[in-house]
Amino acid sequence: MAEIKNIEGMSADDISRELQRGGKFVIYKYCISIIVMTFQRPTDIYFIKGGESGVVKGLGFSFITLLFGWWGIPWGPIYSIGSMITNFRGGTDVTAAVLQSFQTGTEPEVETK
After folding, report:
1. Is 113 part of any domain?
2. Which of 31, 37, 51, 94 could form a disulfide with 65 if both were Cys (CB 3.0 to 4.6 A apart)?
3. How far is Cα 35 from Cα 21, in angstroms, rounded to an integer?
């Protein structure tokens, strides 16, 4: 199963309670450019507890994108802007896919576009 960050030491009941309080599973994006090649990648899945800011958790990935993503022409600026928009919206919510994978015992199938 894909690695899920921020659930270390939490039981299934703890996770369920946090989900009821507004918690969610999210993926962030980051972008790195090397002159003519640009790579936009998703992060691992992160668990955001109810009341926590998904935007704050994604700031590190936005910073990486800001430093290293813009330089590739033409996709660097395009992918960088897309990554920053995703991160400043709190990431991509993949809670439904993660919960389904818990029930079936399979790898979460998440859309990373």
Report:
1. no
2. 31
3. 44
Look at the block and give the residue holding tokens 């790898």: 107
Amino acid at 93: D
**Helix (H, G, I), strand (E, B), or coil: what is residue 7?**
coil
What does DSSP assign to residue 44?
Answer: E
Tell me whether residue 37 is in a domain.
Answer: yes
Sign of CA dihedral 108, 10, 27, 86: positive
User: Which residue type occupies 60?
Assistant: G
What tokens does 8 get? 């270390």
Tens of pLDDT along 52-109?
A: 999 999 999 999 999 999 999 899 999 999 999 999 999 999 999 999 988 887 767 6
Residue 109, in any domain of the structure? no
